[in-house]
Structure formats: structure tokens, C-alpha cells
Amino acid sequence: MDEYDGRLTQELAPAATLLRALRRTGNLTKAAAELGIPQPTASRRLAALSATAGTPLTVPDGRGIRLTRAGHLLADAAERALDALEHGVRRVREEIDPESGHVVLGFLHLLGRSLVPGLLRDFRADHPRTRFSLVQGSRQDIVERLVSGDLDLALVAPPPTEAVLEWVVLTEQELFVAVPDDHPLSRRQGVRMSDLSDEVFVMLEHGYGLRQITDELCAAAGFTPTVAFEGQESDTVRGLVAAGLGVALLPAFEPHPPSGVVEIPLAPRVTREIGLAWPSGRPLPPAVARFQEFVRRRAQRP
């Protein structure tokens, strides 16, 4: 490390939280208040860092300020360093008292009906002080947030293929064709995907695992589905099916299909794997590791 790099690193260390707050707020007064320091102190830290860097790190922007390109580069580095430091602090705190740990769990909307509540209920029976933050979203959103470090663990279907993630299959879930109760197929005991080539589909948006699976099954059957409506929640998709606006591929609705919807098995049977995923190559905080191991043991049950 040369002299410039050494001096800038020494200046950046105490100013890292300030740069992160400035990027978030775009205002020196708000950034100082967020950090609990006087504005003159924040101003002096910023001026000293700019002087050491040899270039302005902020420029006026209306009534606030914004980071320059150099400021953004340093803020990116500060963000990564603070994330690593906060992760280390969390691990130390949970090492001292692992039962009071915190798990940030991401999962698909469809899994929030029974799978996730059941897992949390059974885990907290033995670890009642472990706290959970629950994040729902599309498969693409959940996987991206897991890779970026926003999530500790994620339940997704199908399991991710990213090399930076590890996963274990927790269970399999059968998929059915959901049709309106007055649909010509509603009395069938089973249907093939090719039987749906002329149907109008109601689907989840791109980025959702079920959309990916449906598109792949249609392609394998030799057709491109006609999509009339796209949604972000399976309950909305079912409602559109009940209204006679199309058919959809969905897991079974428990304990039984809602009014106006009939669920027909596919032939051959189609299932999707639900997996628990986590970042590879990074130690998990104690509470996260304990919940991960709990789910892994659950996955190994016959």
C-alpha cells in the first residue's frame, strides 16, 4: 500500500458511516442527525476526507448535496466494509448469547400460507427468543437479495443455480391445472400440458418461479401460452381463474380449492422442488446456522 492509499484508508475508516448516510439522505444536516453528531463535526470530516482524496466528494444539489463519482466510489467501499463489520459484530453478539439471535428469512409468497409458519412455529418451540425478519417477493427478487447479503436464508422454488449459493431441497410440491368450475376440462381426472395449447393462461409475472416452470412446461409440450393476465400473487391468479378469465398452473389450495375453481392433476404428475438456500463461503451467524440446521434435518425426514 503506497502513502496515498494509506492516508486515504485512515481517513475513510472513521468517515465510512458518514459517506453511507450522505448517499442515503443527500443532506449533510440529516446525515449528521442520523449519526448523532453535530453538523460542524460532519462537515469537518467530509472536508478532511476530500482534502486527503485530492478531489471533491460532494457537490451542491438544490438544497442538499450529492456525491461525486469519486464520492460514490468511496461510498461503495465504505458500504462493503461496514456490511462486513456489522456482520462481524452480529456474530460476536450472537456468540455471546446465541438464543437472542436474529434471522432474516426470504421466501416466496406462496410459501407463506403454511410452510413458513409451520417451520417457524416448530423452531421457536425450542428457541423462543430467536427473532425473525420475514421478507416476501418473487423468486428473482429473493435470490438477488440473498446474493447481495440482504437476506440470511431463503426458501425458493425451484432452488437457485447461482454458484455463490448453496441449497438443500426441503420438499416437493405438486402442481395442478386450475380452471373455472364451468370449464370443459373441469370434470377430467387428469390433463396433459398439450391439452392446454388452445387455452388462455393467467400467470404470475416473469421473475416468479411458477412462471418459469409454466413457460418451460408449455415449451416442452410444443406451444407458447397465450397470456391474458399477469399478477404478483397466487390468490389474485386464482381469483382471475374463478372469474373465468383463464387457466393457471398452481400448487393445491389448502384445505380445498376456493369457490369457482377446480384443480386437475397433470399427467404425468408435475412437482416443483422447494429449497433452502444460503450464501456459500461465508460463516453464518449462530442463530442463522441453528435455523439452517433445523431445516436441513427437517428435509432429511422420510
UniProtKB/TrEMBL annotation:
Residues 24-68 form the HTH lysR-type domain. SUPFAM superfamilies: Periplasmic binding protein-like II, Winged helix' DNA-binding domain. Keywords: DNA-binding, Transcription, Transcription regulation. It comes from the Bacteria. InterPro entries: LysR_HTH_N, LysR_subst-bd, WH-like_DNA-bd_sf, WH_DNA-bd_sf. GO terms for molecular function: DNA binding; DNA-binding transcription factor activity. CDD domains: PBP2_GltC_like (cd08434). One of its GO terms (cellular component) is protein-DNA complex. Belongs to the LysR transcriptional regulatory family. This is Transcriptional regulator.
